[in-house]
Write a structure and sequence with these properties.
The protein is of the alpha/beta class. The protein has one domain: Rossmann fold (3-Layer(aba) Sandwich). 22% of the residues lie in helices and 14% in strands. It is built from 10 helices and 17 strands. The strands form 5 sheets. The chain has a 7-stranded parallel β-sheet, sandwiched between helices. Strands 1-16-12-11 form a 4-stranded mixed β-sheet, with helices on both faces. A two-stranded antiparallel ribbon has the order 5-6. Helix 5 runs parallel beside helix 6. The longest helix is centred in the middle third of the chain and has 18 residues, at 283-300. It is globular and about 55 Å long. The termini are close together.
Length: 444
């Protein structure tokens, strides 16, 4: 069998590409309503009505700064970690909270996909999160933060070195802190090429699921989405097609695990006002949807381990019910399905992370790192199993309808009001993935 080797190719920043154009005011109402397609398609309200909204589960979101006072997050089950991991030129840490749109829009919108209360601004439409009952632990560890002078400051020390005496980068430390704070699931809608192996090893040792947005550009790999054991999320639209990159080609990749709604979604805030709404797209918004799904399933099946939740995720995609996983480079194992996962008790699956490659000597994190983290914690954690490449004749589904959904990492924003902001995004190339020896009902 072939094994994947991840090679660093290029790095151009951290977080997400956001571009936009103005939608005429006459189109606002129609655009607003159409931006809620994903909530209905995923039958999320049905799950809430049945009593499953993520209550009792902790989801860590690691992103930019956040504005918790935006309409739709007021009163949300949100615990904000202060201060930010980012520092200014003097070394003083930034606050995790900001009302500056450029600094806080991305994180505010990502958190709203999980924790949104359904409250709407005047003239707007209600945006309810996937798991509003879950506690969202929010950490600001990166991307770009604008200081008072309008300068963009990366989340690093002024000398560009890793943060802290342990020489670890902010995202890596934030993942470990989220694990220590009791997170069940970690959602990351940003990417870079900074090393996060220690954080991921801690997460796997504690049985925590890590969900991350893949690049919005085809054949480009971002970390942590492209790293070992991570649930990398693709984005698709109401028509069931995955997003295209800036070159107009479908966003195909060897990293994708599942797809979720991410194109043309209604989002809070605009450059003009936090009380306005915009239509936006990207894997950034698909990622928290998948994290929210897993939290809702974890609430219903509290005995399920993180590894078993991932098993259920890939065994119950689309609308065909439980099936043996089949992978392609368009949607991975398929469209994440909340109804599919809720209908199957995940404790029936092996307690093995099916995405973790134990044989690749270049894998990050490695088996050794996870075992060291387990030893430091005493016990517990996910069991890992080797990963193989997909069959050569695995179906390619980028042009076929997907159900219930797919999403992306933060690329084109169709503004209902104005604006657009470029945050920055990533890159490395890889060759991996996917079908896994899973035990029992396994894919091949």
């Amino acid at each position: 069998m072939r094994r994947a080797r991840r090679r660093l190719m290029a790095a151009v920043g951290a977080l997400a590409l956001v571009a936009g154009f103005v939608v005429p005011s006459s189109a606002t109402a129609a655009s607003t309503e159409s931006g809620l397609w994903w909530f209905d398609r995923g039958k999320i309200q049905e799950a809430h009505d049945a009593g499953f909204d993520g209550t009792g589960i902790k989801i860590a979101v690691i992103d930019s700064q956040i504005n918790p006072d935006v309409v739709g997050l007021r009163g949300a089950n949100l615990t904000i970690d202060e201060p930010s991991y980012c520092v200014d030129a003097s070394g003083a840490p930034y606050s995790t909270v900001s009302t500056d749109f450029a600094a806080a829009a991305h994180g505010t919108r990502v958190a709203s996909m999980i924790a949104g209360t359904g409250e709407a601004p005047a003239g707007g439409a209600p945006v309810k999160g996937v798991a509003p009952g879950a506690e969202v632990l929010y950490y600001s560890s990166g991307g770009v933060i604008d200081d008072a002078d309008g300068e963009s400051i990366e989340c690093l020390q002024p000398n560009g070195e890793a943060m802290g005496d342990d020489r670890r980068f902010a995202l890596d430390r934030a993942i470990s802190d989220a694990v220590a704070d009791g997170a069940d699931i970690i959602s990351i809608s940003s990417g870079s090429t900074t090393v996060v192996s220690k954080g991921l090893a801690d997460a796997y040792a504690a049985g925590v699921v890590v969900v991350a947005g893949m690049s919005n550009e085809d054949r480009v790999t971002l970390w942590p989405a492209g790293l070992n054991g991570v649930v990398a999320v693709q984005a698709f639209g109401e028509d069931g097609k995955i997003q295209n990159g800036s070159n107009g080609k479908p966003n195909l990749t060897d990293d994708v695990v599942v797809a979720a709604p991410g194109l043309d979604l209604l989002l809070p805030g605009s450059p003009a006002s936090w009380d306005e709404q915009e239509i936006g797209s990207g894997t950034s918004f698909a990622t928290p949807i998948v994290a929210g799904f897993l939290a809702v399933v974890k609430q219903k099946y509290p005995e399920a381990t993180g590894a078993q939740l991932i098993q259920s995720l890939i065994h119950n995609t689309g609308t065909k019910g439980e099936h043996e996983p089949e992978w392609n480079d368009s949607t991975g194992y398929g469209a994440a399905s909340l109804t599919g996962m809720l209908s199957v008790d995940p404790t029936k699956y092996p307690d093995v992370n099916p995405l973790f490659d134990t044989e690749d000597p270049y894998a990050q994190p490695s088996v050794r790192e996870v075992n060291e983290a387990k030893a430091a914690m005493g016990d517990g954690g996910q069991t890992v199993a080797p990963t193989t490449q997909p069959d050569a004749d695995a179906p390619q589904a980028q042009d076929s309808p997907l159900a219930p959904w797919l999403i992306g990492g933060g690329i084109l924003l169709v503004l209902l009001v104005v604006g657009g902001i470029i945050l920055a995004i990533v890159l490395t190339r890889s060759s991996r993935r996917k079908t896994t020896e899973q035990g029992g009902n396994h894919g091949r």
